[in-house]
Each structure stands twice: as C-alpha cells, then as structure tokens.
C-alpha cells in the first residue's frame, strides 16, 4: 500500500513514491509514501483556493470544533504516533511521544485562538464616522517543514493557519512523511470542509518550489536550512508573498564561574546532544569562563562519553541515530574539520555498532575551540558541540553574540545581575537562564534574529502576525 496525498478531500496517488526507512534499523521499511507531482501540487493549491472564501468566514465555533477534534485525537494516540515518529526520524521514544503530545496541545491552544478573535473600534477624526481595525485570513498558505520535528512543526504551522481562517497546503520533509500523513489522516476525519487542508508530500524542488512560485499562495511559512530559506526568500519576495522563515542556529550556552556545575552540565548535555543534537535550538557552542573551565570540561566529557547511543525504541538508549546518511556524512566531515582546525576532541565522534544497522554516532565533544573555527560558526545539526574558553562575562557575551545566527542563547549563572544583563544584551530571539537552549513552550513566540529567522514570530498569540492581514474599515 502506498500512502497517498490529501487533495481536495480525496486521497490521491501517483506512480511515484518514496520508501521511508528507519534510521535505527535500515532493514525496517516504515511505508511507501506518494510523491506529489507538479500537477498534484497545482491541484492541491486549487482545492485550497476554492475552499478559502468559505473557511475564512466559517464561524469561530466551527474552527474550534475542527481543531479541538485533531488535538484530542493526537493526545489520545500519543504513544502510538510517538512510536511511528521515533521509527521514522530516530529520536528516542520518550522524546517522540512528548512531541506528539505537544502537537496535540498546540491544536488545543489554537482551537482556543479561533474563538479569541477580536479587533479595535476607534473614533474617527471625522464627525459621524467609526473606525474598525480587524484581522483577516491571508487565503492559501504553503507550509514547508523539515525532518527534525516531523509532527510538532507541521502542527504548529497548520493549527495556527487554520485557526486564523487560512487554507493549507502542507509539504513535509521527504524523509519523514509518516507523521505528517498521520496528522493529515486525522484532519481528514475532523469536521472541516474538503480542501481546507491539503497534504502534498514530495520533493522540495518540485512541490516546495511550486508553492513558493504560485500566485494563488498568499503566504509561505518555511522551517529548514539557511540556504534553502534564502532561495525561497528571493522567489517569494519577488512576487510579493508574505513570508515566514525559521532557519539555522549556532546557539551559545554561556557558563560563568559562579554557575551551579550540576545545572550547567545538565543544560549542556540536554541542549547539545538530546534529540541527537538535531534541533535548531541546540547549544552547539558552550562558552565557559576560565575559573570553572577545567571542572566543567572534565565533568561534561565524563557525562557525554557515558551517553548510551542506539535504537530509538530501546528504553535504555539516551541518544538515537543520526537521521540519515547525508546528515551522518556531514557530521563526520565536521568532526574532521574540527580536528584539522586544532580543536581537541575530548570524546566521541566514532561510529558505533549496534545489533541493527543504523546511523549510530557517539556524541562528539570538542574542547579548547576558538569561536572563529568553522565548527563554531557553521550549523552542524548533529551530536557535535564545542567548548570555547572565555575570560569573563563581557568576553563570554561578546563570543555568544559573535555569530551570524540569533535563535536561542543560554546562560548558567547564580548572579542575578549577570543573568539580567545577558537577557537584555543577547542578540537572540529566545534567552534561557539556567535552562537548556532547546525546549520551548507552545503558547509563547518562537523565532530568532539575524540569519536565523525572517518575518513574524511563530506560535502562541503572536502567530496571528503572520497568518492574518490587518483591515481598517471606516463606517459612515
Ligand atoms: P532540512 O535538511 O532541515 O530538511 P531543507 O532546507 O533541505 O532542510 O528542507 C526543508 C524543507 O524545504 C523540506 O521540506 C524540503 O523538501 C524543502 N525544500 C528543499 N528545497 C526546496 C526548494 N527549492 N523550494 C521549496 N522547498 C524546498
């Protein structure tokens, strides 16, 4: 059986499909998923377009009911869908189940957002005239998502888009169609008119590009790599589409001399290596003040070398496989680059054998790195992190901000004054104090500065800044 695309309420197949394989066990095929053609993509856009007038003005209760249905089912099936997600992406089961739960919570939150519509009424400067400022849906939005959060990112874009009255074409990453398909299947049974939500699985250069180019698609929300994001920006802005990009990160975690060492180690291990380091909010630069440096490095290297790597469904395992062969190759290349640049590999970086064939890499920790090295400047997106020494708070802050990216920045300190100063001066969209740089709430804005993001923030109430357009009405 080939899992098909959802276009205009129908499951549509094509001769082309892609085999989805488990990165923990390359002998396990998860399923075969249709690859939409350019014509399929056009049909999906046409269906969304045809449904858009109706959904934009559908009652808030109708939107609430549809989104609440999806949220309820995601929460009820979190264990089952978490298992599927862990098998297709490679994150460990506990993280995968939590991700599905989060997707459910996101749908519940945005169910509420659909009925929290409002606006402003103002007096006009003219006698006998009223002014209203309201928000309306954009129309059709194209949602392009990456492989590292196969259900949470499709959920947070889709739920926000639908709550604000938009119709959707979702294009998930090629390597993780199963979670997005499961989400689409739930949505297809929700009380939502046909065509409001469409799933177009397939290649970025076919489906994604079509969405970005088509004049009927009023907005594009993309999460993925910086080069692809830049490419989309040129095309989308050229034709005047609204654009929201979430791209890379090279997130710093600063550890000051006065930090609680246990807290700092937990933040570093979690931020750098959990989810196999495959999070855009991962702390890949650990910037450590010299008074605590040697104790921190010794304790961290001990923790990291003891991390258990293996099959994502094994309950003893803490770090799942790298998601695919390309990513593995890229990680190994950067480990070589770091060594050639003169950073010291304190532990890890080796491929490890397990009973199943998979992309298992022992997390790699570089120490005595310099912020100018490529391993400290370029996003690696894997279980590879580096420790960079800093003289004092000001030096650490300067290093933290010396990066082309600006998504998340963390500090471990017991000093209120350093924490306040860091919070104010870190050039990042999100700041964490005594917490890992990764791991965010669903009801507050998510996004970054500099080359990490473009356009309005995602998630929470701020999601409306992208998914709606402001209208000013004058009533005489
Ligand atoms: P990642 O490696 O994190 O998936 P990519 O930027 O390669 O990052 O992909 C993110 C998403 O963008 C995926 O869904 C991918 O298929 C899609 N994509 C890739 N190339 C293009 C393109 N030229 N136009 C539109 N979407 C694309």
What topology does this entry show?
Layout: E1 2-3, E2 5-7, E3 10-12, E4 17-22, E5 25-34, H1 38-56, H2 60-76, H3 78-89, H4 93-115, E6 120-123, E7 130-137, E8 140-144, H5 152-163, E9 167-171, H6 177-189, E10 197-199, H7 204-213, E11 217-223, H8 226-238, E12 242-246, E13 251-255, H9 261-273, E14 283-289, H10 290-305, H11 325-341, E15 344-347, E16 364-367, H12 374-377, E17 384-390, H13 393-401, E18 405-406, E19 408-412, H14 416-425, E20 430-433, E21 449-450, E22 453-454, H15 464-467, E23 468-475
Parallel strand pairs: 1-5, 8-9, 8-11, 9-10, 11-12, 13-14, 13-19, 14-17, 16-17, 19-20
Antiparallel strand pairs: 2-3, 4-5, 6-7, 7-23, 12-22, 15-16, 18-21
The backbone outline, from C-alpha atoms, is globular
**Total strands:** 23
What's the main sheet like? 7 strands, mixed
User: Low-confidence spans: pLDDT under 50, at least 5 residues?
Assistant: none
Report Rg.
Answer: 23 Å
Distance between the termini: 60 Å
Fraction in helix: 40-55%
> What is the mean predicted local confidence, pLDDT?
98
Q: Supply the number of helical segments.
A: 15
Secondary-structure-based class equals: alpha/beta
Sheet-strand content, in percent, reads: 15-25%
Bound molecules: adenosine-5'-diphosphate
In which order are the strands of the major sheet placed? 15-16-17-14-13-19-20
Instruction: Tell me which oligomeric state these chains represent.
Output: single chain
